[in-house]
Amino acid sequence: MNILIMGPAGSGKGTMSEKILENYNIPHISTGDMLREAIKNETKLGLEAQTYMNEGKLVPDDLVIGLIAERLQQEDCQKGYLIDGFPRSLPQAKALEEITNKINKPIQMVINLTVDFDALAERVTGRRICKNCGAIYHIKSNPPKVEGICDVCGSPLAQRADDTVEQLRVRLNEHYKNTQPCLDYYKEKGLVVDINASQPIEMVYNDINCALAK
Ligand code: AP5
Ligand code: ZN
């Protein structure tokens, strides 16, 4: 399967990706995760991206397009892909189309998660992540078995630097200004499946699973 998962900050892209990958043996390509890794490793890309990410703004197109182009040309993407958080602007969508055509893996479906603002605010402020393995939790809706500790690897959990209500507003603004045009572009191509992601995690996943099975 060649799938994109899209939706505003905190809509559940990472959470649903984890679940989809339990059933599909394809690589998960998250530009947010790749950029956070670059920041952690203090690479040139990481240093450039950090300022934008800390402010909740989009990282410049050329940086992320280069990142995704390199990743999609790796051999494991011949199995397909689940791309999370890319594209976020029309130039990114056009670049992705070129790359996926070049590797002969055109996009088959765009899963679009929709959630209202209050729920997003609750989700990002309550989110905790494992910096070691990337597992995602929520203090209320998806807590770890032991408070503050990752179920998967036992490492301590942390809050993301951009998980405040102020930065959520900036990220949502970027989403509606730059990313919505990508969704409109994919809608015209008949690729988008809208999923009501305000429901509990298992129900959202069930709807995604039904869409993928069609
Ligand atoms: P990125 O890491 O992609 O962040 P985002 O889009 O802001 O999305 P999030 O990771 O915040 O949320 P999510 O939708 O994955 O939700 P999650 O599953 O964690 O990008 C970060 C930054 O990197 C951007 O701001 C930008 O600067 C830069 N960047 C990345 N890609 C870029 C690109 N292509 N171009 C330019 N810049 C780029 O869930 C959230 C919480 O809710 C969790 O706690 C979870 O447990 C909980 N939850 C999930 N689903 C449910 C549910 N159904 N019910 C209750 N709780 C739920
Ligand atoms: Zn972990």
In words, what does this structure look like?
This protein is 49% helix and 15% strand. It has 8 helices and 8 strands; from the N terminus they run βαβαααβαβαβββαβα. By secondary structure, the protein is an alpha/beta fold. The strands form 2 sheets. The protein has a 5-stranded parallel beta sheet with strand order 2-3-1-4-8, with helices on both faces. A 3-stranded antiparallel beta sheet has the order 6-5-7. The radius of gyration is 16 Å and the shape is globular. It has 2 domains: 2-115 and 167-213, Rossmann fold; 127-162, no CATH class. A hairpin with a 5-residue loop joins strand 5 and strand 6. Helix 4 packs parallel to helix 5. The model has no long low-confidence stretch (mean pLDDT 95). The protein binds BIS(adenosine)-5'-pentaphosphate (AP5) and zinc ion. The site of zinc ion has 8 residues, from loops. It catalyses: AMP + ATP = 2 ADP. Belongs to the adenylate kinase family. Its EC number is 2.7.4.3. Monomer.
Write the layout of secondary structure elements.
Layout: E1 2-6, H1 13-23, E2 28-30, H2 31-40, H3 44-55, H4 61-72, E3 81-84, H5 90-102, E4 109-114, H6 117-126, E5 127-130, E6 136-138, E7 157-158, H7 165-188, E8 192-196, H8 201-213
Parallel strand pairs: 1-3, 1-4, 2-3, 4-8
Antiparallel strand pairs: 5-6, 5-7
Helix pairs in contact: 1-8, 2-3, 4-5
Bound molecules: BIS(adenosine)-5'-pentaphosphate (AP5) and zinc ion (ZN).
Features:
214 residues, Rossmann fold, three-stranded antiparallel sheet, 8 helices, 15% strand, binds BIS(adenosine)-5'-pentaphosphate, EC 2.7.4.3, transferase, kinase
